[in-house]
Amino acid sequence: MPDDLVPDDLWERIAPLPPIRPPRRHRYPGRLPADDRAALRGIVYVLRKNVSRRDVPAERTGCGAVTAWRRLRDWTEAGVWPRLREVLLAELRKAGLLDMDDAAIDGSHIRALKGGAHTGPPPVDRARPGSKHHLIVDRHGTPLAVTLTGGNRHDVTQLTPPLDAIPRIRGVRGRPRHRPGRLFADRDYDYDYDYDKYRRILRARGITPEIARRGVPHGSGLGKTRWVVERTFAWLHQFKQLRIRYEIRADLHLDLLQLACSIICLRRLRTSF
Fold it and tell me: In 123-213, which ranges are E strands?
């Protein structure tokens, strides 16, 4: 019976990444640890369904809810999810499915019901804490990098952190690719007292800025290229755990976000076969 939560192609890419657990003791070995794939099922189940940990069905995932959360914590601290993203991006580049000549960036507000790090009152709802996802995608909407900040951080201050978070993508002979040729952004990235400060920063990195100007009529034409980042946000919000932030630990929420981005990359690989 096929595994709808952790398909074989996803598991084949994740299986080599988690750290090797120490061998069990011969005397008083304790309870047999849960299978890694079963723990991943619990993680993906929470990511998709947005249920509390206590409601994860052990009969479907094969492990308890607490075990899945602990494995998520351990794999987060071991850096499993960024490495998975690098593997998939390299495969996409090798298959000719990654186009970094053009990239688009945008941010999306979410509510943070339990607070925690990287939360703040967003301008649209100052009475409640929120967080913000900052996403950069290639020409086809493939997520290249994602970052997490408080909801009160302005988009223009988060123009460079997602660029810094793009890994060095291998997959073909030659130097790894880690920056786009052009970067498209909306008017929120044009707000600054120094009129062209962030455009100069991009040009210094060898990136051509394509940022809509504030104070000019709409109709710049950038929407023909920028729409892909909005579509990728719609894909991410299909994972219900990412619509509202319930996780207090910012690193765990960010890595759930990275796991969702990796699943989107894997879907794009599947369509090429």
Answer: 130-138, 143-150, 182-185, 208-211
Q: Which two tokens stand for residue 173?
A: 């002979």
> pLDDT per residue over 28-51, tens digit each?
666 667 788 888 988 888 888 877
Torsion of Cα atoms, 85 then 88 then 93 then 99, to 10°: -60
Q: Which residues fall within 8 angstroms of residue 150, CB to CB, at 6 or more apart?
A: 118, 119, 120, 130, 131, 132
Q: How many CB atoms lie within 10 A of CB 132?
A: 23
Instruction: Report pLDDT digits (tens) over 69-112.
Output: 888 888 999 999 999 999 999 999 999 999 999 999 999 888 88
229 or 113: which leads in pLDDT: 229
Distance CA 83, CA 53 (A): 25
Alpha helix stretches (DSSP H) within 128-222? 160-165, 197-204
Look up residue 26 and give its DSSP letter.
S
* Gyration radius of the chain's alpha carbons: 20
CA distance 253 to 245: 7
Task: Tell which residue, 146, 11, 7, 38, has the closest CA to residue 82.
Answer: 146
DSSP string over 82-94: HHHHHHHHHHHHH
Which two three-digit tokens encode residue 26?
């011969």
Structure tokens that stand for 217 in this block: 């009529």
Tally of CA atoms within 13 A in the half-sphere of 90 that contains its CB: 17
Q: How far apart are CA 89 and CA 81, in angstroms?
A: 12
Residue entry with tokens 């991410």: 236
Cβ-proximal residues to 102 (8 Å cutoff; 6+ apart), any chain: 138, 139, 180, 181, 182, 184, 225
